[in-house]
Amino acid sequence: MSDKRKRYILPEEEIPHYWYNIQADMVNKPMPPLHPKTKQPLKAEDLYPIFAEELCRQELNQTDAWIEIPEEVREMYKYYRSTPLVRAYGLEKALGTPAHIYFKNESVSPIGSHKLNSALAQAYYCKQEGVTNITTETGAGQWGAALSYAAKVFGLEAAVYQVKISYEQKPYRRSIMQTFGAQVTPSPSMSTRAGKDILTAHPNYQGSLGTAISEAIELAQMTPNCKYTLGSVLSHVTLHQTIIGLEAEKQMEMAGEYPDVVIGCFGGGSNFGGISFPFMRHNILEGKKTRFVAAEPASCPKLTRGKFQYDFGDEAGYTPLLPMFTLGHNFAPAHIHAGGLRYHGAGVIVSQLLKDKLMEAVDIQQLESFEAGCLFAQAEGIIPAPESCHAIAAAIREANQCKETGEEKVILFNLSGHGLIDMASYDKYLAGDLVNYSLTDEDIQKNLDEIGNLEK
Amino acid sequence: MSDKRKRYILPEEEIPHYWYNIQADMVNKPMPPLHPKTKQPLKAEDLYPIFAEELCRQELNQTDAWIEIPEEVREMYKYYRSTPLVRAYGLEKALGTPAHIYFKNESVSPIGSHKLNSALAQAYYCKQEGVTNITTETGAGQWGAALSYAAKVFGLEAAVYQVKISYEQKPYRRSIMQTFGAQVTPSPSMSTRAGKDILTAHPNYQGSLGTAISEAIELAQMTPNCKYTLGSVLSHVTLHQTIIGLEAEKQMEMAGEYPDVVIGCFGGGSNFGGISFPFMRHNILEGKKTRFVAAEPASCPKLTRGKFQYDFGDEAGYTPLLPMFTLGHNFAPAHIHAGGLRYHGAGVIVSQLLKDKLMEAVDIQQLESFEAGCLFAQAEGIIPAPESCHAIAAAIREANQCKETGEEKVILFNLSGHGLIDMASYDKYLAGDLVNYSLTDEDIQKNLDEIGNLEK
């Protein structure tokens, strides 16, 4: 065995004081979100009824590269950050690759994933602005758990709509949210117009993030002193997640290396952007040549097979129109176990970056993702979340390529969360009960044709 | 909020190179284990058929205070250690106590508990001695998961007997062990004589650690090149767990404090001893006055209501006779959700220390333990294992006392693991479906009378 250092943790004073806003450094800025009714470019004020005002300003900020982390949020970060950067010797050995594989271990956050990084920030700003209640949606439950705890930290009440399929597949996440004191409702529900509408049309609909978002927004708008919060997709969420990459940058320096490839799994883009953007900054400003790879599920391939166009962020069309790679806001993804990746669109920043070829995307089938997850578990002792398994699978592909070429590439991926709540999914995988899902080009096109051109 | 540092992590070079063997410093050494057949004091060689030889020597070592951690084990420790020492400001605030509460967060180990500290050591020594297969028992599954992964690290095959009640209450732990590649059997099973005997007498017996130990020992003895491993109780297991307290000692120094009270939950004693003994050393050698409190479940009260006598470590009587506080090796504990604490006896070191009043014990009812766990979860964001909830409850009792007296005591407890696999138990607690269990003095005496004096 090697005697090299395997785990890198930053001293407390090195925990970043600023998030990184890549919009300021992008040559081609993201196109503006459009007001859902007027179709005019959105102003921050247009979003005030839905989100905390500071978050609205962050959302549209294309000028400030560095946004200060409020002291109260940084104070909470210090409870669990820096998360470790780990050299995955076990995985390297199992693969027999000359590549150097590193992962940023966000699974050691108290709630088990990176989601807490933005939940704390969002709850904090809501509290600052006098909000008393917050709503949100959650897929696999990682975001819902984070938000429930963050709400408790800042003394807010939280109501969470959990995608029904996940609510049933992952009952423990519901329990976690309830243990933190949140109210949890499976979505679609009969508690909102959006929920009722879709249940009337499709009584057995198992839910999607898009529908749950509609329900959570509607509840926030109907409740006094209540704001909505979102766990991914939006630019301010990704902004908060850059703490991951900013730490990783310093930690890679401790390891004396710099990544050739940075990989994140991809649902809405916040964990991917979180680990990537601080490194991408050096590509943009200094001409570094690091590759950035988003790993999405083959059953929900908005980046690899979707279309770049204006679309809604939610199923019912309550959100602004966003310029995004999308499969259509009415897209009903297959019931894969990576619930956090079952979303039809990509955030506006990532969409622009992909359009400009500053990053790449790969699609991963369900079975390949779990195979990668089991190999990683046995090699590193950590059961990864089904979402994170996609990043691991993509990293393994890269590492295996290095085995062929003999290249000692440095691969960095984000282990966004652990999968301890997802053991029922592993059970099914080990029993041979999981399947892959295929989409034809016609399926995809038909769905996009249905929504048509929303700008007009 | 305070701007004080909240989390203390040791630089890698500060991770201890030695475990601490308190036996060497004890004035009254533990009485010797007796051979189950001859009733003569045991020699290390007598244990060689069951355990790796180095572990047998460690078990009976009463002279060396410091045992070197093998480089290969320390190398693996570096993957997840030091675990953080955390100042529990959230909990202090929730309680309104002047006490300073710290916890050592073993829940961030890859497998989610402190158990990995000994699993890696035991698997390593087995591998060194040419063993190919290892067996063990597990209650809640924390130890089984740790051992399964440790076996994989050192290329061994693992077979685990899981107490049936836990196997059913916590199916995810079984999945975790299987994901790590272990074979898992619910105990009692028909695969051993011990299992058959008890199932014949009590067809619906839901199992206990004592029975599972018997089965695992029997399998090890029937299988070529196979050794048995144990997750607690024995002195060598506690020895390995002293890494917890040794780190905590240095981390408390970083915090500029020294504990007035050290608390651990108590099943067999290894997590309690692990955090306590390095501090107790200063009581013994330097006359410090720290108190040490073992928190056991009221339904399995060997320390607070058991008898100090020679007894078997397992249900079938395969182990040596150990001088221990015990409820009788035939004791069938109530079906509390803290499966890891459902054990009839206490390790020989702890038993001697309790007899000599160098430590104390308290018993905690199931409902108090979960109440404490939920409060902690909301305050600190970490869902504690039901076992660890007992330590939290005891810490809260101490902190509340400080509130009354106004004392600023420093309280340190071990958060031995997280409870993410135990959410079904939390569900039942939140639904009001959990109960307390009472034992009469007659129940306890009757059970002890049944086993009689085993020395003769």
From TrEMBL, chains A, B:
It is an enzyme of class 4 (lyase). InterPro entries: Trp_synth_b-like, Trp_synth_b_CS, Trp_synth_beta/beta-like, TrpB-like_PALP, TrpB-like_PALP_sf. Its EC number is 4.2.1.20. Pathway: Amino-acid biosynthesis; L-tryptophan biosynthesis; L-tryptophan from chorismate: step 5/5. PROSITE patterns: TRP_SYNTHASE_BETA. It comes from the Bacteria. It catalyses: (1S,2R)-1-C-(indol-3-yl)glycerol 3-phosphate + L-serine = D-glyceraldehyde 3-phosphate + L-tryptophan + H2O. The keyword Amino-acid biosynthesis applies. Signal peptide: none annotated. Its cofactor is pyridoxal 5'-phosphate. Residues 79-417 form the Tryptophan synthase beta chain-like PALP domain. The beta subunit is responsible for the synthesis of L-tryptophan from indole and L-serine. Tetramer of two alpha and two beta chains. Belongs to the TrpB family. This is tryptophan synthase.
